Amino acid sequence: KALTNTAQAAVKAVRAKLPAQFRLRNAYTAQGVGWTMATKTNQTAWVNFERYYMYLQEVGGVRVGRQSMIAIPLDPALRVRIPSNMRPRVLLAQVDLQGTLAPFKSQSRRNAITKTYNTGFLIKSGGKLYIAIHTGRAMRKGMLRGQRDPNVRILYVLVPSVQIPKRLRMYETVQQVVREQFKQFFAEAMD
Fold first, then answer.
1. Cα distance between residue 81 and residue 116, in whole Å
2. What per-residue confidence (pLDDT) applies to 39?
3. What is the DSSP letter of 168?
4. Where are the strands (E) in 5-141, listed by range?
5. Which residues 6+ apart lie within 8 Å of 82 measured at CB?
6. Measured over all CA atoms, what is the biggest interatomic distance in the chain, rounded to whole angstroms?
7. Residue in 164, 166, 184, 174 with CA at minimum distance from that of residue 14
8. What is the mean pLDDT of each run of 10 residues along the chain (191 residues)?
């Protein structure tokens, strides 16, 4: 009982720290922190992260693009939450349109995706590749050096790899909870 209670407390502590360490766009990532209960036959309780993409956040390392490049958002609005119609795969038509529309029941969302499908294009400037779109109005902010057309909005920079720093620190958080709370849970279980 004490092991399981400690694991549950550690899960709460890790989930509580996530919003300060990452921009969470929804609850999916936080729900990936799980625990395994200790039993009489297996007196070990586990705390684990069931989201594959958080492994590099825990240990640090280099993230390499699946298809040779990673799109890094330049627009601050896209860093908070990337709408489905503004994702690089949709803008550059790298996915099947019908397959992209299938999960969306909302007609307005489907229309937004259809409207922006294959509207993006690549720009090479200063040895870097960018994904851009044409806008109906002039956008002075966020223009590249030497860019002459203010109706072009630069959305992403394409890079082959990105260095991911160690910033999750789940192991340290769990260890701290064990040091601070296990004795208390053990005493309660013995009463």
1. 17
2. 87
3. -
4. 33-36, 46-49, 61-64, 70-73, 121-125, 128-134
5. 25, 73
6. 75
7. 174
8. 89 91 85 90 90 90 84 78 74 67 71 74 85 72 64 84 90 91 87 79
